[in-house]
Write a structure and sequence with these properties.
This protein has twelve helices and nine strands. With about 325 residues, the protein is α/β, with parallel strands linked by helices. Helix 11 crosses helix 12. The longest helix has 23 residues. The chain is globular.
Length: about 325
């Protein structure tokens, strides 16, 4: 679950719902043989949202004649999905960042956050950051980024979902919708001054030059929310500078963790409340943070990259030794 990502050469942009449905059905016709609740569990990611999961799951049921709810996660609430699954990656990331800062005697309340993206992950991160009292001042897309010094409020955060649903994959319309915001074409938000920087869009979106710009602002915290959001040289620069930094393999684990909670609910044939799911997500992220701190301490500095890598390695190594090295 969550260990690998697949893909295809099918470009969904500009395709009708019917075309996307037929592709998903064809894809599942081959995939269903090698997935299952005790084998491999796919979930959504870039380009694969609730619509696509629905088409994939419908074909899976058609082919197997069984309702294995735990075979795919990210399902709709009406057919086996979990409350908070769409928000989970962003929510979990902010719980992790909050703990990072608390561990270092810092408070997220009142701090400014520059984040990238405007999809589900950025939406969840902006929502939870605002709830925790921080001010999100940027979003971004392939066309550039938006700077909003007033910060995102509930109306603006809801608008991110409209941007995503439009299928245009651009963030410029935000400038036209909300007075006081500015659109910067073909640029990244990392040039703006903020207390916290959160890449939430895609892989390798923050490179070494971007890291230099961020370090010049002397931020309190940088954390990957997207998978491998920072290039290797950017990560090296953050660590060499002693910057408080955490990698996506720890920070964004809330998404796959809530997929696990969705599978648990499917297996138990129950549905938890929002409060129950949120409490369990918070607990899981707290445990991940504790493991990173345990294995990442280097004097007064906590190397979260080392901590996450060693914690993951130790879990696998101990299991291999206990079961016989096979």
């Amino acid at each position: 679950m969550g260990g690998g990502k697949g893909g295809s050469d099918f470009a969904p942009r500009g395709k009708s719902d019917a075309e996307i449905m037929r592709f998903c059905q064809s894809f599942m016709t081959e995939l269903y043989k090698i997935i299952g609740p005790d084998m491999d569990v796919p979930a959504g990611d870039i380009g694969v949202g609730g619509r696509e999961i629905g088409y994939l799951f419908g074909q899976y049921k058609r082919l197997t004649s069984q309702f294995h709810g735990a075979t795919l996660t990210g399902k709709g609430l009406e057919w086996g999905g979990s409350i908070l699954r769409p928000e989970a990656t962003g929510f979990g990331a902010l719980y992790f960042v909050h703990q990072m800062m608390e561990t270092h005697g810092l408070d997220i309340k009142g701090k400014t956050i520059a984040l990238s993206g405007f999809g589900n992950v950025a939406w969840g991160a902006a929502k939870k950051a605002t709830e925790l009292g921080a001010k999100v001042i940027t979003i971004s897309g392939p066309d550039g980024y938006i700077y909003d010094p007033a910060g995102l409020d509930d109306e603006k955060i809801d608008y991110l979902l409209e941007l995503r649903a439009s299928g245009n994959d651009i963030c410029q319309p935000y400038e036209e919708e909300f007075e006081g915001s500015t659109f910067f074409a073909d640029k990244k938000p990392w040039e703006q001054k903020a207390d916290i920087y959160l890449p939430c869009a895609t892989q390798n979106e923050l490179n070494g030059d971007d890291a230099d710009k961020i370090l010049a602002q002397k931020p309190l915290c940088v954390a990957e929310v997207s998978n491998m959001g920072c290039t290797a040289d950017a990560v090296e620069k953050f660590i060499a500078a002693g910057q408080l930094f955490a990698p996506g393999k720890a920070v964004n684990a809330g998404g796959v963790a809530t997929s696990g909670l969705e599978m648990t609910q499917n297996s138990m044939r129950i549905s938890w409340t929002e409060e129950e799911v949120d409490q369990k997500l918070h607990q899981i992220m707290s445990g991940i943070h504790a493991q990173c701190v345990k294995y990442g301490k280097e004097g007064n500095y906590i190397n979260y990259v080392k901590g996450a890598n060693v914690a993951g390695f130790m879990k696998v190594a101990k299991a291999m030794l206990a079961q016989g090295i096979v």
